[in-house]
Design brief:
By secondary structure, this protein is mostly beta strands. The protein is built from 3 helices and 18 strands.
Length: 333
C-alpha cells in the first residue's frame, strides 16, 4: 500500500474476502492520519460496497390490514400486503386457487382471519389443498439467494375461528423464470389448534437457491392435506410469512473508479451498471443519513459501467472535511 496520502490520489488494494470490520479499522486509521482527505472518504463509501453476503429477510408479510380483491372469483386475492423486501421488487398480491386452478374465497368474517391468509376450502380427508404464489424479481445490481421459509401454521374451522387440533401439509417450490422447478421442500403434518397452539414452521431448502436468471422467479406455496397422515376436516391457513436468504448488495454493483480534481472541484464516479436502469448518487457526512442526492435520474449507459461527473462547488462540497457517496437504483414511486 502506498505511504503518505493526500487529496490528489489514493490507491488501495485488498482482497474482496477481507472482513468489513478489518477494512473499516484500516480505513479509519488512515482517516485519523488524513482527516481532510476528500478522496479517502469517498473511497470508504466505495469500500462499503465491496461484495459481502449477509443473512437476510428477502421478503415478509404478516397479512395485517390486507384487502381482498377479485381475480378469478370474488375475494380470492389478498392485496395491500405491505411487504418488507430486500433485494427484490414488491411481490404484490397473492391469489388462492384449488387443485383445478379455480379461485377460492379467502376467509374474512372476523379479525382473526382478516389478518392471515386463509383460503376457504376444507382441506381435510386427504389430497385436498390450495395453492398460491409469491413473485420474486431481483432488483438490478443485486444478488439474492434463498435458504428457507418460515410461517405460522393455522388450523381454522368453517366458522372461521381457530380449530381443534388438525394436521396440515405444506410444500414450497421455487420456479425459475421459465417455469422450471429448481427447488422444493415439504413440511409434513404440522399440528395446530386450540391445544397445540400455532406452531412457527421452518421449511429449509436442501441447498441455497440462487436467483441468477433474468426475469421473475416464483415461490409456489401449497397448503392442505396431501402428505402422510389423512386428517379430518379443517381449513389450512398461514400467517407471518417470511422468505429468508442472503443478499449481496455489491455484487455487480460497486463504485469501480473515483477521479477527484481538486483544482477544478470536480468528482467523477464510475460504477457497474445495467443499461437503461436509473440511478441516484447519494451523499452523506456520517454514512448514516443518506437522504441527500448529489444527483438522481442518471440513466445507465450502454455497456457494463456508467460514469457521472459532478461539480462539487455547485454542490457546496468542495471544502467539506469529509463526504461519503453511494449509488442506489431508483425505483418507481
Amino acid at each position: 500500500m502506498p505511504g503518505d496520502l493526500d487529496t490528489s490520489g489514493i490507491f488501495l488494494f485488498f482482497q474482496p474476502a477481507i472482513s468489513w470490520s478489518r477494512l473499516s479499522h484500516i480505513l479509519q486509521t488512515l482517516l485519523m492520519k488524513n482527516p481532510k482527505s476528500f478522496l479517502l472518504n469517498a473511497f470508504i463509501a466505495q469500500a462499503a460496497l465491496v461484495p459481502m453476503a449477509f443473512a437476510d429477510v428477502i421478503a415478509s408479510t404478516n397479512f395485517d390490514g390486507r384487502t381482498l380483491t377479485e381475480v378469478t372469483t370474488a375475494n380470492d386475492t389478498a392485496s395491500g400486503l405491505n411487504w418488507t423486501v430486500n433485494g427484490i421488487a414488491d411481490p404484490g398480491s397473492m391469489t388462492s386457487v384449488n387443485a383445478s386452478g379455480g379461485g377460492l374465497v379467502l376467509f374474512n368474517a372476523n379479525e382473526l382471519v382478516q389478518n392471515m391468509f386463509a383460503p376457504g376450502i376444507n382441506t381435510g380427508n386427504g389430497n385436498t389443498f390450495w395453492t398460491t404464489s409469491v413473485a420474486l424479481t431481483v432488483l438490478p445490481g443485486r444478488s439474492v439467494t434463498l435458504t428457507d421459509v418460515t410461517f405460522d401454521s393455522w388450523s381454522v374451522s368453517g366458522a372461521q375461528v381457530q380449530n381443534v387440533n388438525r394436521r396440515s401439509d405444506f410444500t414450497f417450490t421455487v420456479l425459475d423464470p421459465s417455469g422450471t422447478e429448481v427447488a422444493s421442500v415439504d413440511v409434513v403434518d404440522s399440528l395446530s389448534g386450540k391445544a397445540e397452539g400455532v406452531p412457527t414452521e421452518t421449511a429449509t431448502f436442501a441447498s441455497p437457491v440462487a436467483l441468477t436468471a433474468p426475469g421473475t422467479y416464483t415461490l409456489g406455496i401449497k397448503g392442505g392435506d396431501f402428505l402422510e397422515f389423512n386428517e379430518t376436516g379443517n381449513h389450512t391457513a398461514i400467517d407471518n410469512l417470511v422468505i429468508n436468504g442472503s443478499t449481496d448488495p455489491g455484487a455487480g454493483f460497486t463504485i469501480t473508479d473515483i477521479v477527484y480534481d481538486k483544482e477544478a472541484g470536480s468528482l467523477s464516479l464510475t460504477w457497474n451498471s445495467t443499461p437503461g436502469t436509473v440511478y441516484a448518487v447519494k451523499v452523506s457526512d456520517d454514512m448514516m443519513n443518506w437522504d441527500s442526492d448529489l444527483d438522481d435520474g442518471i440513466l445507465g449507459e450502454d455497456g457494463e459501467t456508467t460514469t457521472a461527473i459532478f461539480n462539487l462547488v455547485e454542490a457546496n462540497l468542495k471544502d467539506v472535511a469529509k463526504t461519503f457517496f453511494r449509488i442506489e437504483v431508483q425505483t418507481e414511486g
